[in-house]
Amino acid sequence: MEVDKALNESRASDATRTARGSGIATFMGLPHTTTLTGVDAVVVGVPSDSGGTPGSSRGPRALRDVSALLRPANASQGIAPFSILNVVDYGDLTVIPGSLQRTYEEIERGLDGILAQDVVPLLMGGDHSITLPHLRAVAAHHGPVALLLFDAHSDTYDVYYGSERYNSGTMFRRAVEEGLVDVAHSIMVGLRGAVYQPSDYDDARALGYEVLTMDDVVALGFDQTVDRIRSRVGAAPVFLSWDVDALDPGQAPATGTLEIGGFSTREMLGVIRALEGLAYTGFDVVEVNPAFDGIRQTAAAGATMIFEFLTLLALRRSQVR
Ligand SMILES: [Mn+2]
Predict the structure, then answer these.
(1) DSSP letters along 83-115, please?
(2) Strand intervals (E) in the chain
(3) Are 288 and 126 in contact (CB under 8 A)?
(4) Interval between CA 227 and ligand 1 midpoint (Å)
(5) Distance between CA 209 and CA 182 in Å, rounded?
(6) Interval between CA 88 and ligand 1 midpoint (Å)
(7) How much distance in Å is there from the Cα of 73 to the middle of ligand 1?
């Protein structure tokens, strides 16, 4: 469908035309609407911390606020994503503080309406537990998807506190049990830090995931890391989940779990940009916790990732057309 790309681009944030940071804080100044005719992708907030780290519910507002610093074109990738894609800020999905199950129902319902119109959702969390209903909604429309996870943690534990099956540490086990992910094409990247048992990563592998710990990434180098990801995912529809704790806490300190020895922002940009051409069906950026974000560097990293993900979508769209 032809859309008025020039109009869309002119409405994205551009400080040569409108003072930076002026107006209501939508993501990158994109129009806020829930009318999706002609829309290719939406940025949507999920201000929930009912599944994990208190304070991450403030993530969407922080990401929108700092996104005023982003300019609309990507020189590294040689593309102006908003000249290819019609993107809007959909606002926030409904969440029910204290009720993760009702929050999940709302997220699934909200995303179903978006996906039914062939629109790619980019979610701003929120704690990482929101990824399970996101995967449910995406799998309902696309079938099981390859999970591409950047995270310090596998989040494949079975239960916490004896019987708690749904939280920000279990969703990638639940996703396998529910048949939401195509594990044969799924890969987890950047795992590190102290674990509960030495065999924790083997538990993730036993579920079928390929696991590249941060030690593996360093041993392989970034080019080979990208090769491993690309060969694992292949042509499968892919869901990219990006926990900000994949970054080193020295550069992204505002998150619930500080695991030293992570990706630098520079390294992460290189890896993400090299992952163009994959068949992306959904993205999320989770676990930004603004209360700890001294100079907004963590939110800036998260917002920039959303921009890079939009760029990946635009590149893919320009290749497929
Ligand atoms: Mn994590």
Answers:
(1) HH--EEEEEE----TT-HHHHHHHHHHHHHHHH
(2) 41-46, 87-92, 120-125, 146-150, 187-191, 210-213, 237-243, 279-286
(3) no
(4) 23
(5) 9
(6) 28
(7) 29
Neighbours of 247 (CB within 10 A): 27
Q: Which residue has the higher pLDDT, 191 or 8?
A: 191
Token look-up 């519910």 returns 57
251, two tokens: 């550069």
Output the CA 114–ligand 1 centroid distance in Å: 26
What three-state secondary structure class fits 30?
Answer: coil
CA of 97 to the centre of ligand 1 (A): 21
> How far apart are the CA of 243 and the centre of ligand 1, in A?
6
Tokens 């550069």 map to which residue? Answer: 251
Q: How far is the CA of 245 from the centre of ligand 1 (A)?
A: 5
CB 314 within 8 A of CB 273: no
CA 82 to ligand 1 centroid distance, Å = 30
The SS3 of residue 189 is strand
Please write the tens of the pLDDT for every residue from 173-231: 999 999 999 999 999 999 999 999 999 999 999 999 999 999 999 999 999 999 999 99
Residues 6+ apart with CB under 8 A from 167: 51, 52, 100, 129, 160
Crossing angle between the packed helical segments 131-142 and 100-115, to the nearest 10 degrees: 30
Which residues have a Cβ under 8 Å from the Cβ of 304 and sit 6 or more positions away?
70, 265, 269
CA of 286 to the centre of ligand 1 (A): 9
Q: Find how far residue 306's CA is from the centre of its chain.
A: 7
CA 108 to centroid of ligand 1, rounded, Å:
22
**pTM of the shown model:** 0.96
For residue 214, how far is its CA from the centre of ligand 1 (angstroms)?
13
